[in-house]
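User: Please predict the structure of the protein below. I'd like the answer in structure-token form so I can feed it into my own downstream comparison script.

Assistant: Understood. Taking the following sequence of 86 residues as input:
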Amino acid sequence: MKGGVYLDDEAPHLVRQHFALVRATRGKRQRFPENCVEPVASAAEALRRADPAHNLHAAEVMGPSRSSEGFNLYYLVRWLADEQTP
């Protein structure tokens, strides 16, 4: 299990790890609907395009995963900016 999502070794293409931009207020929230998440090609791109002043944060996420309510969700693995040195 990774970030609240069970991974299926036989179908790794279904739920994958992505670097992404997450449009949300940072807090204790660990999952985000897909309309708040934009997967990007790399961690560097996510960090370059992040704009925390407008609630757009660079992150590593797992997903998409279908919730019991029928929504596609991404689960937070880590915020990338937390690992940056000043």
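That's the full token string. The first strand starts at residue 16 and ends at 23.
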